[in-house]
Specification:
Elements lengths: L8 H15 L7 H13 L1 H5 L3 H10 L4 H15 L32
Helix pairs in contact: 2-5, 4-5
C-alpha cells in the first residue's frame, strides 16, 4: 500500500521519462508523448486510477514540466479517474509502458533501451 502523496514506482519512472523528453524540446511535450500516455492509461487504467493528483503535480514540477504540460497530464489522469474514455492517436494504440525494457532511471535516453 502506498502512502498518500507517493506515486507508484512505475508512474514515477514514466514521469521521469516524460520530463526527459519534454526537456529535449523547446516547446514542451510533443503530441506523441501525450499519445503514449493516453494509450497506457487506456490499457493499464489501474496504474492511473489511484494516482494522487497532488503528488503527480509535484512530480511534474520536479521533472521540469511547465504549467501547460502539467495541466495536460493532470487532465488526462482526471478523465481516467472519472471513467471517461480516452482515444490515443492510431499510431500509438497498443502502446503501454512495461512491455518495453525498463524505463531508464539513470538519465539515459529512451534510445539507450
Amino acid at each position: 500500500m502506498r502512502i498518500q502523496g507517493e506515486l507508484e514506482p512505475s508512474v514515477d519512472r514514466i514521469m521521469d521519462y516524460i520530463g526527459q523528453m519534454a526537456a529535449g524540446y523547446s516547446t514542451g511535450l510533443k503530441w506523441n508523448e501525450v499519445a503514449k500516455l493516453k494509450s497506457d492509461m487506456v490499457l493499464v487504467p489501474h496504474r492511473w486510477i489511484g494516482v494522487d493528483l497532488r503528488a503527480l503535480e509535484a512530480k511534474c514540477r520536479v521533472v521540469g514540466l511547465d504549467d501547460k504540460d502539467t495541466g495536460t497530464i493532470l487532465d488526462l489522469v482526471r478523465k481516467v479517474q472519472a471513467g471517461k474514455r480516452l482515444v490515443p492517436q492510431r499510431s500509438y494504440r497498443g502502446f503501454r509502458w512495461g512491455t518495453e525494457p525498463e524505463l531508464p532511471s539513470d538519465g539515459t535516453s529512451s534510445r539507450d533501451w
